[in-house]
Amino acid sequence: MFNDKTFTRQALVPDRKVWPCANTLKLPAASIKIPGMNAFVLRYLKTIEMTGVLMRIFSFSLVSWLGPQSPFMFVWVFNTIDAVMLTWCATLKRDRAYITLNGFWILVGIVGILRAGNILH
Question: 14-28, 30-44, 54-68, 80-94: which has the minimum mean pLDDT?
Fold first, then answer.
């Protein structure tokens, strides 16, 4: 199934649409290091993306509601996890804009974690 370095929508999700605009997703050979995980992410792509978006909404809502009393370490870890999820989805879809946006949020999250842990001042 993964020998030709092409994931087909029909092979991975025969009864569901993964996204409406693509019948196949061609990945460079270097990006197929964990094909089982990529296949899983592709199969549940919309669910993973929605979960990541809801996680981001929750984390920023928490900061808005609690202000200075927010559990910042939790918020930054949670936000960084959702950024990794969304970046992975965007990478598999080859969506450069969202790869850049969520890659940026990973870096912001790392800085936030270091600041919340008093490692970076």
Answer: 14-28
| H helix intervals, the chain | 9-12, 35-43, 45-66, 72-93, 96-116
Domain ranges of the chain: 1-43, 52-121
Query: Is a pLDDT exceeding 80 seen at residue 101?
Result: yes
Q: What are phi and psi of 6, to 5 degrees?
A: -130, 130
Q: Do 116 and 73 form a contact (C-beta atoms < 8 A)?
A: yes
Q: Which residues pair with 8 in a beta bridge?
A: 24
Distance, in Å, from the CA atom of 62 to the CA atom of 57, rounded to the nearest integer, reads 8
